[in-house]
From TrEMBL:
Keywords: Cytoplasm, DNA damage, DNA recombination, DNA repair, DNA-binding. Signal peptide: none annotated. This is Holliday junction branch migration complex subunit RuvA. It is found in: Cytoplasm. Residues 1-64 are annotated as: Domain I. Residues 73-92, 108-127 form the Helix-hairpin-helix DNA-binding motif class domain. Transmembrane segments: none annotated. It comes from Pseudotabrizicola sediminis. SMART domains: HhH1. The gene is ruvA. Homotetramer. Forms an RuvA(8)-RuvB(12)-Holliday junction (HJ) complex. HJ DNA is sandwiched between 2 RuvA tetramers; dsDNA enters through RuvA and exits via RuvB. An RuvB hexamer assembles on each DNA strand where it exits the tetramer. Each RuvB hexamer is contacted by two RuvA subunits (via domain III) on 2 adjacent RuvB subunits; this complex drives branch migration. In the full resolvosome a probable DNA-RuvA(4)-RuvB(12)-RuvC(2) complex forms which resolves the HJ. Residues 176-226 are annotated as: Domain III. Its main location: cytoplasm. HAMAP family: DNA_HJ_migration_RuvA.
Length: 226
């Protein structure tokens, strides 16, 4: 599995680019949004990738962040949504826009993607709404944009193994991190800080050991219109 490509941008086409990795060129399909964010030809570039394998076809799809890659993986699980349709949805909305549309049940936003009709958009909402909090929770730590790194393209010097250290009890820190991540995810959806913080605090008080995805899911229920 090819999970990431780092090299130099060698060519731009319609919906695809060629990345030169030490003399080997990889054609990678990207969304219009990703295409617009790429550097100039000849400059370093790095994309997370998903390899589509069929009997007579191998295709690479590229994403600027792991979060977008995770959403692409989830979108293609919906019946009728192929790899290119999923890329179209991400290109129209972005990772956070997809999370917002699915979580809030906004089928019209999904329908704005080229090639996605109303029935397919509604199916995306229905099939993924329950799964969205888990991706949102992971996305808090995955949303940093991937940047091309010369050390990845050129030969890297050996990195010494880190010394082992005794870890303190991470329980309180883990719980604090889960609530902070849940709050961040809700703010990204557009909820006000006060309402989001109150909902997260309520859930965390009732379920102190809850993971981030659970806090998000329960908080969304509290924030839903009565």
């Amino acid at each position: 599995m090819i999970g990431k490509i780092s090299g130099r941008l060698d060519w731009r086409g319609t919906g695809e680019v060629l990345i030169d990795v030490r003399g080997v060129g990889y054609i990678v399909h990207v969304s219009d949004r990703t295409m617009a964010s790429l550097p100039l030809l000849g400059e370093p570039v790095s994309l997370y990738t998903e390899l589509l394998v069929r009997e007579d076809l191998l295709q690479l799809f590229g994403f600027p962040t792991m979060l977008e890659k995770e959403w692409h993986r989830l979108l293609v699980t919906v019946q009728g949504v192929g790899a290119k349709a999923a890329l179209s949805i991400l290109g129209a909305l972005g990772a956070e826009g997809v999370a917002r549309a699915i979580t809030l049940g906004d089928a019209r936003a999904v329908q704005a993607a080229p090639g996605v009709g109303p029935k397919l958009a509604q199916r995306v909402i229905l099939e993924l709404k329950a799964k969205a909090p888990a991706v949102m929770a992971a996305g808090v730590s995955l949303s940093a944009r991937a940047e091309a790194d010369e050390s990845v393209i050129e030969d890297m010097a050996p990195v010494p193994a880190p010394k082992k250290a005794t870890k303190p009890d991470a329980g309180p820190a883990r719980r604090a991190g889960a609530t902070a991540d849940a709050l961040s995810a809700l703010l990204n959806l557009g909820y006000g800080h006060g309402d989001a913080a109150q909902a997260v605090a309520t859930v965390a008080g009732e379920e102190p050991e809850a993971e981030t995805a659970t806090i998000i899911r329960q908080a969304l229920r509290l924030l839903a219109p009565k």
